[in-house]
Amino acid sequence: MIEDLQEQARWLLLAFESKLPKRIVNDIIVTWCYQRGRTLQEFFSASSQEWSETCQFNAGMMEKLERAKEKLGEQALLLEQLSNDHIHLLTVLDDAYPKLLKSALAPDQRPPVLFYVGDLQILELTTIAIIGSRRAEEESLAFTREVAQYLAEQGANVISGNAHGVDRAAFDGAIYSCGCTTVVLPHGIRKLSGVQMRELLPKIEAGIVLLLSQFHPNASWLVSRAMERNKVVTGLAQIVIVAESDVKGGTWEGANVALRQHRPVYVRQADTPSALPGNKALIELGGRPLTWPPEWYQQGILLPADVMLPVL
After folding, report:
1. Which domain holds residue 200?
2. Please, which pLDDT band fits residue 304 given cuts at 50, 70 and 90?
3. d(CA 297, CA 171)
């Protein structure tokens, strides 16, 4: 993990202040840091000619990088504030960067920087995401709480996306049994309210809650960020459970992303054929129908025997 604050500040410049697309940022990291073994301090000290020759930048890209360099002092101050709040920075080159996330996302789609509060060791547990609508019906919320509680009691890390509805029910179910849970934020990690942080802090200190964000610490909630967050929720998970989905929207897209990531996707099966049309459509696309409680639940087994977890 990069401890040099000057190097960390340059990571913030590249990832957030350069205004370059994620694809370009990741290309720079691969070309400059990974292949050439050079630091971002060296990158931002390089000449325009070296940028052009090494990374094939055009004039517009180099202008953005030059403007970003002017904000170095602001990034140093931000890092000091993050440290005071016990917020840590993790880059895509760090050994502790989640391996499942790397394997799930294409190199040009990986978040170059992650911010977190809590114990990263939680991610070494079996990770199971529960996703669903913000406006889910009560039966879906009850399903979510019971499933999350059961999984947490069996030692799994329940992953959710910090929204109303199913996300909140998944968090509550996991915490009810004092189990582990990872909350992937759809906004900057410093945008949690004081009330939320006071609620979470004892659980973070107890080692059972991990907060994670791929966005600038001060970034506000946006629909686009919530959609982008979903790829990280499913990317961190070895298994994805869908409580309730429409045939469009964030949960629908997240479930389809999970299928493309080759995750086992379990979908709550409705009691009647006409209920939960989104769930029905996901099952038709390859999701596995899940009624609750299943046979393996009654046997006290964490997962069904036919599930092959991704290799870490």
Report:
1. 120-298
2. confident
3. 20
- Pair 126, 272 in one domain: yes
**Distant-in-sequence, close-in-space partners of 137: CB < 8 Å, separation ≥ 6:** 244
**Furthest-apart CA atoms within the chain: distance in Å:** 66
Q: Are residues 127 and 268 in the same domain?
A: yes
- Gap between the Cα atoms of 312 and 241, Å rounded: 20
What's the number of domains the chain is made of? Answer: 2
Place of tokens 């000449």: 47
pLDDT tens profile 31-55: 999 999 999 999 999 998 999 888 8
Nearest Cα neighbor of 161 from 88, 82, 254, 91 is 254
Residues 134 and 63 in one domain: no
Alpha helices (H) in 219-293, listed in sequence order: 223-235, 250-260, 277-284
Q: What are phi and psi of 258, to 5 degrees?
A: -60, -40
45-54 as b/e: b if 16+ CB within 10 A: ebeeeebeeb
142 and 250 assigned to the same domain: yes
